[in-house]
Amino acid sequence: MKKQDLPKIIPVFPLSNFIIFPNTTVPLNIFEPRYIEMINDSMKTNKLIGLIQPKQKKLSDIPDLYEVGCLGKISNFEKVDGRYLIELNGLTRFKVIKEIKADKAYRLCEVTFDDFSDDLNISKKELKFSDLELIFKDLKTLFEKKGYIINWKSLEKQDLNETINALAMASPFSLEEKQILLESQDLEIRKNKIAEILNTYNYDNFDNTTIQ
What we know:
29% of the residues lie in helices and 25% in strands.
């Protein structure tokens, strides 16, 4: 998809502690009526929805949203017992300009894609898998401490961009940490941010969160 074909107003799906990156695919189970409506409307038009994290505020039923999310296209759609099972392909990140008031149960935002023009350009990265072995070793330790099962052999065969983004999406990092990774401009920066986050964790006693 070309930048000029991207919509200026998109439906947004606030999903806490969950991110999607460009060139990755995630399954979603849609069951809330407002998001059923959103998927119905999207399927009738361009099949595009924006995934974005809500900020954690308990004082309001309508949480504020982070500024940056990722636009995805519905690639697979199945209706099961009143629910929708979909697969969403990440296309490009976006920045929220403002929220739009509309006669919909779900939320709409005016967005810009200007800060992330490289997301739509598929190019091979210069980083080598060997450059990331230490990070992956630390990530593996963290995942295992939390009981996560990852097919590391499979990841080694993927494109590095896909691998780093998949690990960032699946990681047991906090909402704020995942948002930092989403907003990292490119693969090199994202790799370094993962390393920085990992350095804050105490692997011997992970349940006590982080070392201050």
